[in-house]
Amino acid sequence: MGLFDWFNSTPSNVTILEDVIWMKNQARLNGITRALSQIVAKPAGTAAVIAVAHFQEMLGQLREIAAQLEAPELITVCAADLLERHAADWRRLNESDSIHILVGERHPLPAHDERVLDFARGLPCQSHIVHHLSLADPMMRTFNGEWVESILKRLGMAEDEAIESKLVARQIKKAQIKIASQAVGDSPADSAESWMERNCPEIWNLRQR
Fold first, then answer.
1. Are 130 and 31 within 8 A, CB to CB?
2. Pair 117, 16: CB distance under 8 Å
């Protein structure tokens, strides 16, 4: 289980996979492309694939990926805050159906990630949720993502490889809690970097020094 370990109860219809963590954003996008391609290539039992983004920057990247795949009609690309608005078709599914929810990032505020989980909780079918992150993400950099990257490189990890680390996942959780405690608001932004600069200037400005 990934970052949602700290929630007390996860319904039986939701399976939360370990966060997939990449060194660079391009490696993340390549990894998302491969993951979606594999699901689309073997859609048996999969009623829908939802690619989710918290910010417009990632939303555009996910749309580009979906358009490149052989069966883009199987994939719905959606902003996290609009999932409920477009949920009517998914709520017609049966208990035996399965949905893959791939989230291209984590939001600096854990409440936004929780809303994705709440959406999956409300579906009548089985859901599998996985988040893809990059050590270059603004939130990751708040807990010395560059230091983690240098350690991984010394251990022989290539830039196009991914890790699923409970240690790193715990650090992400701590970073989100720290950001939530110091955020001055939750003003919308087109990118995670702009969100951090606008809503958590103390942490962000300190990190830029």
1. no
2. yes
Domain total for the chain?
1
Residue 134 half-sphere exposure toward CB, CA atoms < 13 A? 19
Cross-strand bridge partners of residue 79: 53
- Nearest residue to 178 via CA among 133, 125, 142: 142
Residue range 111-134: mean pLDDT, rounded:
95
For residue 110, what is the domain's CATH number? 3.40.50.300
Tokens of 5: 């370990």
pTM of the model: 0.89
The answer to whether 28 and 132 have CB atoms below 8 angstroms apart is yes
pLDDT computed for residue 166 by the predictor: 81
Q: In whole angstroms, what is the distance from residue 58 CA to residue 39 CA?
A: 20
Burial degree of 67 (CB within 10 A; 0-12, 13-18, 19+)? exposed
User: Residue 45 in 3-state DSSP?
Assistant: coil
Whether 139 and 179 have beta carbons less than 8 Å apart is answered as yes
| pLDDT exceeds cutoff 90 at 86 | no
Q: What is the pLDDT of residue 160?
A: 84
AA letter at 183: A
Alpha helices in 91-137 (DSSP H): 110-121
Rounded to whole angstroms, how far apart are CA atoms 150 and 27? Answer: 16
> Could you give the maximum distance between any two Cα atoms of the chain, in Å?
52
In angstroms, how far is CA 176 from the centroid of its own chain? Answer: 13
129: domain range?
A: 3-208
Q: Which two tokens stand for residue 3?
A: 């970052």
Residues 6+ apart with CB under 8 A from 154: none
